[in-house]
Amino acid sequence: MLGLLIVYCALFGLVVGSFLNVVIYRVPRKESVVSPRSACPNCGEPIASKDNVPIFSWLLLRGRCRKCRVPISVRYPLIEAATAGLFAGLAARTGFSWSLPAFLVLAAGLLALACIDVEHLLLPKRIVYPVLGLVTLLLVVAAAATHHWHDLLVAGICAVAWFAIFFALNAISPRLLGFGDVRLAPVLGLALGWLGVRYVLLGFFAANLIGAVVGLTLIATNRMSRQQQIPYGVFLALGTLLAIFAGPELLRPFQNLRG
Fold first, then answer.
1. Which helix (H) or strand (E) holds 34?
2. Is the dihedral of CA 227, 232, 238, 240 positive or negative?
3. pLDDT for residue 259 is more than 50
4. Burial (CB count within 10 angstroms: exposed 0-12, middle 13-18, buried 19+), residue 91
5. 158 to each of 107, 140, 200, 218, 256, how far by Cα in Å?
């Protein structure tokens, strides 16, 4: 049965990934993600339903528009594949859990935000706030179904704590930490707090460690200057996902500590 859940989540991830491609392209441009239909950015030809099958359509068309033959970025199938992989991995990690839907929403939101942050150095509130609302609602449902109200309380406290810490850091140095990161902080604190305080600490530590390693490497190779802004949201997303997927193994040496 777990295998079927993983397959279903992977297939669902392909569909969600196709929608995330629309979100990643349109939200930074302040366009609607609902209408009009997706079209080739070069010739404007609407994409037919048969050409909108995740991954497979891109492969069948050999990465080109059916009408004008202009290349279509490989980013599109990669986002679809990444979403499917994340959804399948979360299903494998959590199994038949009431909290699974909340973490699927979180993963989809983090993937979209990370891609936008890399390209635009932006974490749009049009994505952050709906993700926060959905994750909160789904965790409340999970708490009601399992009577794990203590877990929800810890998650709420962690969300508030992360927001307060990030808000203070932004107030001290807005250049160091943008307000988009402040908005994202309670989302991550809430989700990781549901798993335990140790996961919150691990996610924060991993995000900063990954960011430091990547940043120092780019500076050392002259690909980035010390004054250049980095997409911190990407590292927050990576740290959070690392804590979710590898947390039990990484935290096993500290299992005597209560989270």
1. none
2. positive
3. no
4. buried
5. 18, 15, 7, 32, 20
Distances (CA, A) of 96 to 91, 110, 206, 239: 7, 22, 27, 24
Query: Per residue in 190-224, pLDDT tens?
Result: 999 999 999 999 999 999 999 889 888 888 887 77
Q: Which of 103, 123, 105 is nearest to 199 (CA)?
A: 103
Residue 148's φ and ψ, nearest 5 degrees, are -95, 60
C-alpha dist (Å) from residue 4 to 53, 63, 97: 21, 30, 14
Inter-residue contact 134 to 171 (CB < 8 Å): no
Using the CB atoms, write b or e for 66-84: b if 16+ within 10 Å.
beeeeebeeebbebbbbbb
In this predicted model, what pLDDT tens digit does every residue of 88-145 receive, in sequence order?
A: 999 999 999 999 999 999 999 999 999 999 999 999 999 999 999 999 999 999 999 9
CA distances from 66 to 21, 22, 46, 70, 190 (A): 19, 19, 10, 8, 44
pTM higher than 0.85: yes
Which pair of tokens denotes residue 86?
């994340």
| Nearest in space to 131 (alpha carbons), one of 110, 152, 154 | 110
Q: What are the structure tokens assigned to 83, written together?
A: 């979403």
Cα angle: 245, vertex 9, 27; to 5 degrees: 85
As a whole number of angstroms, the distance between CA 27 and CA 127 comes to 8
Please give the structure tokens belonging to residue 253. Answer: 């040496």
By CB atoms closer than 10 A (0-12, 13-18, 19+), residue 192 is buried
